[in-house]
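Morning F.,

Quick status update on the modeling queue. The single chain you submitted on Monday has been processed. Sequence for confirmation:
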Amino acid sequence: KDLSAALNAVRADAFALYMKTKNFHWHMSGPHFRDYHLLLDAHGDQIFAITDDIAERVRKIGGITIHSIGQIAKLQRIADNDADYVTPEDMLAELHEDELALTLRMKAAHTLCDDAGDVATASLLENWIDESQRRAWFLFEATRK
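C-alpha cells below.
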C-alpha cells in the first residue's frame, strides 16, 4: 500500500510537470525560442511516457492507480503555474527545480522498494531518476550565464 501510494504521488507529479512543461513549451518566446521550444517538447514527451509505466507498475503490485484529474490535483506536489507571462529564464529555472523535486520523490519511493524487496519497481525508478536528472541538467545548463 505504501509503495502504491508513493508511486501514485509520483505519477500525479509527473502529470503536473508534464502539463507545466507543455505550457511553457507553448508559451516560449525570445531569441532562443526554437531551441527551448524543442527542448521542452522532448522533455514533455519523456515525462508523459513514464505515466503509463507507473500506472501499470501500481496495478502489477496490487494497487489502484489515479482515476481522474481531480485525484491528480489532490496528490500533486509540483505547483501549477497559471501566469499569463513567464520569462524564458524563469520557465527553465522553475522546471529545473521541479525536476529536482521529482527526483527526490522518486528516490523516496525507491527506498520503499528496498524495504519491500521490490527490485522490479526499483529498477524502473532508477531509470526514471536518471532521466529526470538528465532533464534537470539540461535545464540548468540552458540557464547558466
